User: Which sequence fits this backbone?
């Protein structure tokens, strides 16, 4: 029986070529590499089920390969159940039995989710909920709309910025529905179709998706994980002059995914470059409180201290307290914040009152974050030990904070490894997810937000997956050092 034709959208050859990035690993395995790269995009949700694929000739022209190679890759995908075809109707994406789970799909079948760099709710959340429930009574008599957020929560957020070296008042803070919501609000205000946005390479994938959804153009400046500071400030300066971006999006505290942190001297230089160009900068501080080596207030001052009145800080409780709260914030000058409040009315009318009361209670107890940092420090060290034990050829720089290791692989097989890992019961995000145009095939991000026993098992499975990709024995029974 022939497969039914879906009603999904179509992707062009050039667009698919951009998504696939540097998929090719060598002429001997060209068809297998291309099939694995397309399969990963299906598993990753980047090619939704039912997406019509380009014609063979169009895709061959876009990738600069022969139609024979394209045909062989499609044959592999059809054989594995990721592509269906009908004569005269073309080919489209599907899934084998609709049961195999991809790298970013929910898990419940024994698979280990190694894609989300986020932790369960911080201990003390239930007690904060009980206290907030009592305090909610004080708010039930009003309309409940708080476009800037509850004054008590804004005061706590402002105080934290002041403690870190950036004097802030509650009037400079707006509560949002997470840091990503905050970024999208700023993006809507500052950029439009065709505008350029300067970003780091690699960077946070959801920020890239938001930029593309706004039909803006991300302009990457490469980071150097092995360099002295990691940030190419001269490259940022050149990009500001040559590309004239509407704004920059930077993560200078335990950067996602690299874990790098820019020192005070580097922040001074980078801030001066941005201020001189009069380029607004969105500073993502989602991970700044997860300093695993010391007190966050003793770290380098916020980049906004050096970048002037066009700096906009976004933060979140998702990584520190719990993603289920869905609360974040924006810190900016009163003038910019007023414009953002006006822009917000087109998107939503404020954040939930009850969740804000819960977060206010959680932020009042500073010992909670101290215990979370101590826990994550143990998780980080457990992950580093497991990688050394099971994957000794992988290298990384141990980050001083954040939630993940950025590992360099001995071969450019990140996308293929992510596909193989799914069949070994562990889901990972390949390096290509963090690149503006894909690539980064020698890199992979591993979060340390799971308990040590789950981390150890996840890395053991990764070792088996890597062995299947590279054709080498896995280090499954390595002694514990």
Assistant:
């Amino acid at each position: 029986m022939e497969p039914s034709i879906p009603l999904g959208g179509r992707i062009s050859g050039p667009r698919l070529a951009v998504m696939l990035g540097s998929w090719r690993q060598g002429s001997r395995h060209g068809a297998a590499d291309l099939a694995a790269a397309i399969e990963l995009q299906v598993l990753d949700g980047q090619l939704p089920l039912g997406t019509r694929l380009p014609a063979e000739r169009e895709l061959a022209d876009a990738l600069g390969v022969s139609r024979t190679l394209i045909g062989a890759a499609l044959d592999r995908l059809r054989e594995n159940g990721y592509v269906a075809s009908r004569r005269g109707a073309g080919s489209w994406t599907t899934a084998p039995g609709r049961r195999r789970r991809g790298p970013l799909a929910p898990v419940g079948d024994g698979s280990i989710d190694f894609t989300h760099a986020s932790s369960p709710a911080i201990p003390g959340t239930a007690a904060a909920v009980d206290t907030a429930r009592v305090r909610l009574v004080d708010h039930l008599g009003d309309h409940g709309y708080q476009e800037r957020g509850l004054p008590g929560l804004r005061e706590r957020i402002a105080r934290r910025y002041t403690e870190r070296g950036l004097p802030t008042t509650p009037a400079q803070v707006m509560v949002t529905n997470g840091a990503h919501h905050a970024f999208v609000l700023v993006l809507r205000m500052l950029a439009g179709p065709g505008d350029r946005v300067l970003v780091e390479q690699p960077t946070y994938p959801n920020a890239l998706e938001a930029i593309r959804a706004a039909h803006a153009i991300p302009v990457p400046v490469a980071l150097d994980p092995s360099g002295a500071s990691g940030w190419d400030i001269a490259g940022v300066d050149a990009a500001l002059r040559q590309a004239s971006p509407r704004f920059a999006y930077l993560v200078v505290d335990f950067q996602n995914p690299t874990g790098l942190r820019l020192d005070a001297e580097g922040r001074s230089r980078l801030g001066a470059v941005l201020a001189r160009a009069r380029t607004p900068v969105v500073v993502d501080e989602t991970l700044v409180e997860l300093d695993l080596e010391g007190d966050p207030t003793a770290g380098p001052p916020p980049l906004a201290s050096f970048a002037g009145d066009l700096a906009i800080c976004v933060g979140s409780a998702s990584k520190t307290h719990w993603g289920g709260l869905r609360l974040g914030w924006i810190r900016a000058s009163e003038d910019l914040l007023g414009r953002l409040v006006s822009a917000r009315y087109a998107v939503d009318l404020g954040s939930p009152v009850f969740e804000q009361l819960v977060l206010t209670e959680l932020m009042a107890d500073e010992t909670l974050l101290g215990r979370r940092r101590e826990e994550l420090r143990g998780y980080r060290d457990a992950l580093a030990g497991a990688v050394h034990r099971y994957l000794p050829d992988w290298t990384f720089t141990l980050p001083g904070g954040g939630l993940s290791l950025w590992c360099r692989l001995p071969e450019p097989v990140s996308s293929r490894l992510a596909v193989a890992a799914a069949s070994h019961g562990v889901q990972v995000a390949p390096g290509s997810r963090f690149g503006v145009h894909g690539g980064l095939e020698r890199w992979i991000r591993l979060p340390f937000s799971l308990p040590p026993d789950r981390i150890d098992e996840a890395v053991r499975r990764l070792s088996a997956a890597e062995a299947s990709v590279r054709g080498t024995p896995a280090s499954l029974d390595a002694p514990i050092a």
User: Anything to note?
Assistant: The domain at 13-98 is CATH 1.10.10.10 (Arc Repressor Mutant, subunit A). The first helix runs from residue 13 to 20. Residues 98-108, 476-481 have pLDDT under 50 and may be disordered. The chain has three domains: 13-98, 112-121+368-470, 125-364.
